[in-house]
Backbone:
């Protein structure tokens, strides 16, 4: 089943670290931006711990990651990048984060939230788990007028978000595949904005390259490796549904305070297979 959405949506991607989107859903966000949807990127930390280098402070890493994120988001067509000030590496207060995310779901009138799947098995990074869980809860609870009433007093009205798209590693078989064959190059270009991506590519393919001091020739080499890695991942995901390149998601429609999944869960509980995935 192929999905076509002609209405312009407000789409809010909520993630933990600056390079998360480029890995998991940059191709999809770029396609949605090209289709005229309003894309907002809300990063909960500055990713100040995310380096193996010892010659930098957290403040220096944070400044670099924020600059990289804005450059990558400009590449894929993000309308606004919002960076919160939560600490990296497992120190996020969930209750505080949920209240703040409800605020942004309401303020940005989010029709669709894109985030991590907090129920995936063997996810070791606590930032991914807490951000995914609080983003999903914010999408489901932003409609309640008696929740966080100070926001309403200040003119930020309740808003009923329609759906949550879980990205990346999933705890459930994907039920949506997005064709990114037309935006895969943007995804790769966005990924290459991050030193952390260059560090990963160097460790995998060219350990003699210093990702902090990449020459033009070395950048061309790492770009080739990035093309190989990201293209093979997109092709492998797309092959499941006869697409040349794809990103996969588990999508849940929302009701106030719930996912609209009672029929689905009951069907699966009774041993019936999930429905055929949809292609966007």
Residues:
């Amino acid at each position: 089943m192929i999905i076509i959405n002609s209405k312009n949506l407000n789409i809010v991607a909520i993630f933990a670290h600056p390079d998360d989107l480029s890995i998991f859903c940059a191709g999809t966000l770029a396609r949605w931006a090209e289709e005229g949807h309003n894309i907002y990127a809300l990063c909960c930390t500055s990713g100040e711990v995310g380096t193996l280098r010892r010659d930098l402070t957290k403040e220096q890493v944070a400044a670099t990651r924020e600059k990289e994120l804005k450059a990558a988001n400009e590449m894929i067509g993000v309308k606004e990048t919002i960076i919160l000030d939560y600490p990296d590496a497992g120190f996020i207060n969930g209750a505080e984060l949920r209240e703040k995310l409800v605020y942004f779901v309401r303020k940005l009138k989010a029709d669709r939230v894109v985030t991590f799947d907090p129920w995936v098995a063997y996810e070791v990074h606590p930032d991914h788990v807490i951000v995914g869980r609080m983003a999903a809860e914010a999408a489901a609870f932003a409609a309640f007028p008696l929740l966080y009433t100070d926001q309403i007093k200040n003119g930020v009205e309740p808003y009923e978000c329609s759906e949550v798209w879980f990205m990346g590693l999933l705890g459930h078989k994907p039920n949506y595949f997005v064709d990114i064959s037309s935006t895969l190059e943007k995804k790769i270009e966005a990924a290459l904005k991050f030193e952390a991506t260059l560090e990963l590519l160097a460790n995998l393919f060219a350990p003699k390259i210093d990702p902090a001091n990449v020459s033009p020739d070395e950048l061309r080499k790492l770009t080739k490796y990035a093309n190989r890695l990201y293209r093979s991942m997109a092709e492998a995901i797309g092959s499941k549904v006869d697409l040349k390149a794809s990103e996969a998601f588990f999508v849940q429609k929302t009701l106030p305070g719930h996912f609209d999944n009672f029929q689905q869960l009951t069907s699966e509980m009774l041993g019936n297979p999930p429905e055929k995935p949809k292609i966007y």
The radius of gyration is 19 Å.
